[in-house]
Every structure is written in structure tokens, then in C-alpha cells.
Amino acid sequence: MSELILETRKLSKSFKGFTAVDSVDLRVRRGHIHALIGPNGAGKTTCFNLLTKFLTPTSGEILFNGIAITGEKPAEIARRGVIRSFQISAVFPHLTVLENVRIGLQRFTGTSFHFWKGLAGLRQLDARALELLELVDLHNMAQLRAADLPYGRKRALEIATTMAMEPELMLLDEPTQGMGHEDVERVTELIKRVAEGRTVLMVEHNMRVISRIADQITVLARGAVLAEGDYDTVSRHPAVLEAYMGSEATELQGAHG
Fold first, then answer.
1. Check: CATH 3.40.50.300 for 1-81+167-257?
2. What count of Cα atoms within 13 Å lies in the side-chain half-sphere of residue 176?
């Protein structure tokens, strides 16, 4: 099996003459945490939307496990094991924490759309749901309504529901956005834990998080790849520092501190 799980070739997206993603060649290695970073407006989220086919590329190719998936629909790509969590926490607020994870697990039972059937058949999934909640430190909150969780714990729940769909490649979109320091620390450790034996591609602004957990980094600027490499390489790259400028550049260089 190839060490590349995901590859893009000259991936591009234009909107009425504006090029949001410009000939991006991305190579994500199996078993790595790969970060996609860049200043605001660099094209990171657009790139994610292309990979999950929420947007259709203007040109270029997307390959997953060596198979061209450029023409596939979002549901087909999800069935292949490319599962995305979103920038804004996406949980069912009026269901319990356990019920949220159980919905993710239903994908494998053939009951994904059988919500009108009784819950008895779904209770067989509870043991696995509780295992996933243990993994993200939510086991003791299983019976709480998702709406009653603090923000950082909602993001942890979202990662658990993503894990329930057994992703081969997890796409995390700004997993620590809007969090205080304590929640950032907790979610960073959580990502490290769930990434063991899996592949993660993440968009993240917090450079301290990136410096701690990313194996490989691709820097985008104005939709194009500006630099690639490990954190030490990209944080010292002159073009990257120029693209970030000012306080962001200081944060980029000082994240190891």
C-alpha cells in the first residue's frame, strides 16, 4: 500500500475570475498529522471543501488511496472513509452525548435512516459509544444533553462522533477555534490520542498547537502552496514569515517557546 493516502494534482478553484485555490499539489502521508496553514483568505477551507466535494474543482485531480475521486459525490467520498469535522461544532444539541455518538455508529448497522424504529436495536451500540467517549474524556458526561456541554467539550464530542464513522482520513477544520487556553490544551492532547494509527489533515490557526502535533505542514498563501515541511522548516521560511507579517509572524517563530 502506498504511503500516500491523499494526493492532489494541480487542484484549482475559481469563482467568477477569482482564483481561491491555485494549482495545489498536496501529499498527505498515511499515519501522519498534516496541517494546512496560512493567513486569512489563503484558501484553506476552500481546499477542504474541494477535498470533500462540497465544492467542485475548476480543474485538477484528487486521489485517495491512489484512486481518482475527483468526480465523486460527498456521500461517496465519506463512504470511502474521508470524514470531516467542521469549523463550528456540529452536534445534535437536544440529544444526549451518548446518543450523538450512537448516530455516528449507525452508519455500520444498516439503520442510518431508521429513526422511526425503536431505540432497542440501537442499544447494542452503547458499549462502543462509551469506548469512544472514554477516549475523548466524556464518559462521565454520557447522559448530559449535548447543548449543556461547555464549548470545548462539544468539540471533543464532535471528534468522538467523527471517530464513530471509523475514518481512514480525518479532516479537522479549526478544531481549537474560539477556545480558551485550557480547552486548547485538552483538545490538542485529544487530537494526538485519536491520531494514533490514523491519518489527520487539519486546518488550524493556533501555531502552538501546530508546533506540538503536526508531522508535516503545507502553507498556503493566496490559494497557492508557499512552503512545505516540518514546523522548524516552515517557521523559518522567509516567504512564510513575510506572508504572515507582524504579530502572526512572531507567534509562528515563538510557538516552540
1. yes
2. 21
